[in-house]
Design brief:
Blueprint lengths: L4 E5 L2 E4 L3 E5 L4 H13 L2 E4 L7 E5 L4 E4 L3 H20 L1
Parallel strand pairs: 4-6
Antiparallel strand pairs: 1-2, 3-5, 5-6
Length: about 90
Amino acid sequence: MNIKLINIGFGNIVSANRVIAIVSPESAPIKRIIQEARENGQLIDATYGRRTRAVIIVDSDHVILSAIQPETVANRIIDDNDEIAKDKDK
């Protein structure tokens, strides 16, 4: 099993294998998910005081807040998968 790590900003790294969803924080349902995670002690704030731009939901029901765009996080996961595929072709 390959462990893939993804940088979510400011040197914070998450296991890409455990990510279920990467979403924008603007909608009311996502705001409720963030609040419930905060109340249950399952919120990880990796924004370093900056504006939350991406909400990452992982398989352990933890919710991670990131200050980088959801598209950027997703592209980093996709780029890692492309590099792995290229290494297998060699």
